Structures are given as structure tokens and as C-alpha cells.
Amino acid sequence: MQKKIAVLAGDGIGPEVCREAIRVLDAVAQRFGHQWEYDHAIVGAAAIDATGDPYPAATQAACKGADAILFGAIGDPKYDNDPSAKVRPEQGLLKMRKDLNLFANIRPVTAYEPLLEMSPLKSHIISGTDFVVFRELTGGIYFGQPRGRSEDGSTAFDSCIYHVEEIDRVSRLAFQAAENRKAKLTLVDKANVLATSRLWRDRVKKMAAEFPKVEVDYMFVDNAAMKIIQQPASFDVILTENMFGDILTDEASVISGSLGLLPSASVGGEHMLFEPIHGSYPQAAGQNRANPMGAILSAAMMIDYAFGCKEESDCIKLALEDCLLAGEGTEDLFPKSAKTTEEVGSVIANRLLKLSEV
Ligand code: IPM
Ligand code: MN
Asked: Virtual CA dihedral for 251, 257, 261, 267, nearest 10 degrees?
């Protein structure tokens, strides 16, 4: 198979973790006889420095001309500490999500048996956890207008807005996923307070009739934040709006043992983008110590979702789990015997080449 992959490594640790994801993708290509062509493009602070725009036209063209997009991370402390900055790296990410119509962000959360002890949560609580969050990604308070400051600067406001179509399209994907999993869907909202949440409930209740096999329940976000820690294994598919999904998925990463492990897929219309959820982690940038596993698992999701390479994808996951079993990982997972970013990528690639038939 021949595929073109746009690689947007971005800022901070993005370039390092993407390099390792590519190393593993190359091993997949070698083992299964595929050909991947990589089209590298700039995004985020790196793109602001080069062009003044965090999502420049050439990058847009690279994304639209590719079969899938592999994304690293975006963000730079020089902007975080400057609230007056006119152009911010994150604007590139948000603009890109809108431009490519990536309205559904899919974030799987798994408790890896070899890492159970690593989590600050008790092993018997997280053992068996396997759920997936469907986060709406192009609406809600992230994009609602009006937003801004009053003229005298004393008041600021954001708008949380949802239209039925925005709710329905991501909900449908979540219901379909639930049908193929444990057939349980939890809508997380704040319907006791927010009008938008009440609209989500109406629409999801309506759609539930189309999916009689799926058991649906409704949970307020504050309660869900607690349940994810108390009984994470009780969830299957969580469906939620943009901001709640952002917060809950960082929280949920604690279950896996490290934020550095979580991959994600952003899908919608024509384009698909895959990225680790960890962000740019500037403190570790350029030091060859960041965990590349989130990026590598994102590459695994990419070849499965975008190219239909399920067996190849499983192969990456097996090789990675073998590493975890052998205690091979970066400092966030194994501080006493930490491997570098590059070593972890190489170990996974080599294991993948040596795996017996899967
Ligand atoms: C994420 C990130 C982004 C978000 C930021 C960088 C804008 O935290 O992908 O979860 O809030 O969506
Ligand atoms: Mn986030």
C-alpha cells in the first residue's frame, strides 16, 4: 500500500516524538511491504517564527493533500506568559481543527497491566479499564462568538454555543463506536445548569432510539470527574462537549500511568489527524527524554482508522506492550532505568520487526 502522511511535528517535544513514531511506521512499512511518503510541514510557534502564521497556507495544503496527518504538539511558554500576544500557537491548532472539519476527537483510555503500579490510583480500581472518550472538537466555548473584553477591559466573556447538527454528527460516531464495543454510552454534561447541555441531552435521547442495543446513561461532569477516578472500569464510551472532554481526558490519563501514553484521533469529514494528547512539554524539549509512546500509539491509530491496516496497528500495540512488560520506557514510566526517547522508538521498532505472526 502507498500512502502520503503529512507530518506536523510542531513545538516542544513534538519533533522528537514524531521522529520515533516515524521510525516505528518505517518498521511497519518494512515488515508489511508498504510505502509511506512523509510530507513535513510547520505549525504552531515554529510556524509563527517562520511565517507569522501558526497554520500557514503551505501547511493547509500539505494536510489537504495527504491521506492522513500525524501531529506532534503545539505551544510555547513565551506565548503562555504573554496574555497580550496577538498571535498564539494554539490558534493554529484551533484553526486547523475547523479548517479540516475535525469535529470528533477520539481518546482511548486503557489501563496497561504492567503499569498498574505506576498510577497514583490503586491497581484494583483501574485494572480492566478500557474506555474511549468522544470529545466534540470544533464547537462550544472554544469557538463561540461573541468572545472578548469589554471596552474598559474590566469584563471578559466567552460564549458556549451548540447547534443540533454539531451535536448529532459526533454523537452518531460515538453510538456507532459503542455498538462495536461494550454497547454502553455515557453522555457527560452539566444539564442541571447549562442550556447547551440540555440540548445535548435532548439530541442524545432522540438518537438512542436508533441504537436500541446501546445502553445510554447521563452524568453531570462534576460527578463524572469523580467516577472516572473511583470506577474507571465502569465506562465504555463517554460522549461529551469540547471543554469537558479536554479536561476529563487529561484526568483520565492518570489511569494509564502517564499522560505521555495517550494517543488520539481527530476525525470528521474528509481528513483525519492523529496526535498524542500530551502537548508540547517545553521543559523536556530537545532533551531526548520525552515519552514517544503517545505519538507511536497515535501512528497505530492512524494506520488502522485512516488506512484500514488493523493487523499492522495491532503489531505496533503488541510491540509497545512488550516493551512495557520488559520495563522499557522513558523516565515518566521507569525513572530508575529510564531509556531515552530515541531508545524507546528503536526498541519498539525492533520488537515489531521480530514479532512472530500476530
Ligand atoms: C488538547 C489541547 C488543546 C485543547 C490546546 C493546546 C488548545 O489541550 O488538544 O487537548 O485545549 O484542545
Ligand atoms: Mn487538552
From this structure: -30
